[in-house]
Amino acid sequence: MCSATTDPGRSTSRNGSVRKVAWASAIGSTIEWYDFFLYGTAAALVFDSQFFPGLDPAVGTIAAFGTLTAGFLARPLGGVIFGHFGDRAGRRNTLIVSLLLMGLATTMVGALPTYADVGIWAPVLLVLLRLVQGIGLGGEWGGAIVLTLEHAPEDRKGFYGSFPQLGTPAGLILANGAFLGCLAVVGKEEFVQWGWRIVFLISIALVAVGLYLRVHVQESPEYVRTAQRKQVDRAPAAVVFSQHWKPLIHATLVIVGNSTAAYIFMVYVLSYGTTAQNLSRPFVLGCVILGSAAWLVSVPFWARLGDKFGLRAVFVHGSVIRLVWCLAFFPIVNTGNEPIILLFMVSMGLVLSVTNAPIGTLTAGFFPVEVRYSGASISYQIGSLLGGGITPLVASALFTTTQSSWSVTAYLLAISVVSLAASNAIPRRDAAPVHEASAPTEVR
Questions:
Q1: Residue at 52 is within a domain
Q2: Major facilitator superfamily (MFS) profile domain: which residues (predicted)?
Q3: Does 11 map to a domain?
Q4: Cys-Cys with 152: which of 128, 160, 225, 434 at CB 3.0–4.6 Å?
């Protein structure tokens, strides 16, 4: 994988700097994922009645998940746009803009009129804001990973590169916790009518915190050296598609399986559990929160193992375990046995963290410094679109058509097998996990 050569004379100051950058990336990423997951949770629980009230409930759920997918369609575009400026103008300032864009769009969702107020314009505006969210998040993940990775010391790139990954489960916990808390305070009827808006509107305060942190971090030293050598590409996205298309496809296929499984766990189960299995909303939300907590606390452990034994080894073994858990997911949920479901959801969080922890460092390293922001962002966002973006929509359509969760399980299995094959095709290497190069290099 790609990286810069470590300067031995700056180790002490650099350790303090990388910790600051890592935590700023983790917190900023958490806020962006909180914003993004709010929408996914609301699509599963609220948006069908507020923005698509004239539709059959099942069709309304599909329509609500369709607006969720719209955000994923915009994420590759965001990856191209923010990747361009991240590779040409610097990582830090680009991340500040992406956070601001995301936060403003989320806050505006909380102020939207519903279908009862303005008719068809309500879902139209909802989709437009979701597209803006998608563009903002499209520039977030790759930038946070790259900025942290390029600050990290050679022997701890896996560990520090996992910090932005903490944002996914942490944002999910905050989003679902906010919904659960609001539901408990205002009651079910008020929550559906207006209470859901609160969790969107408070996003503006979280964005202010994230902006403060990002303003006070330094630019990537690797990017600074690249800019000083005048090796910045005029059109980095075009270079990725023309010169690095093989690692782009490879990284996308590695990412798609992780994203598909995660969005079944994070989003689709909220709808499936409450409608198909008649589980209570607080219980299903609580399961997702506890599973996400297990995911969150275990990420650093797997990242450290990646630094010790190799990122590839951890990821491939984790992909096999994740495939088995995907096969068991719906049969367990279909039991309706709440203690068993809760235990399984917690274990699912632990399983997802095995592949989530190293995936950023692993795939960002497929690309050289001068186009790394673009390459990491575009591959991740395309993988997320093909995985998480369409998964809730496809799962809802499959279950509505077949009335069987086995059709969804078969879909999960097919994606998991393809992604596992791509993960296993990552070449081995006996040297350090991350290396400087102008092209993708092998990893352990």
A1: yes
A2: 21-431
A3: no
A4: 160
CA pair distance 248, 239, nearest whole angstrom: 11
Looking up residue 110, the CATH number of its domain turns out to be: 1.20.1250.20
Give the C-alpha separation, 290 to 307, whole Å.
Answer: 27
- Closest CA relative to residue 109, chosen from 82, 81, 136: 136
Confidence of residue 4 (pLDDT cuts 50, 70, 90): very low
Torsion of CA 15, 18, 20, 22, to 10 degrees: -140
Share in percent of the chain as helix, strand, coil (round to 5): 80, 0, 20
Q: CA–CA separation, 399 vs 386, rounded Å?
A: 19
Q: How far is CA 28 from the centre of its chain?
A: 13
Assess contact for 352 and 322: CB atoms under 8 A: yes
Q: How many separate domains does the chain show?
A: 1
Residue 442 lies inside a defined structural domain of this protein = no
Based on the number of CB atoms within 10 Å of its own CB, is 200 exposed (0-12), middle (13-18) or buried (19 or more)?
Answer: buried
Residue 173 within a domain: yes
Once rounded to an integer, what is the mean pLDDT over residues 295-313? 94
For residue 383, the enclosing domain spans 21-218+237-425
Helix axes 11-45, 203-215, angle to 10 degrees: 160
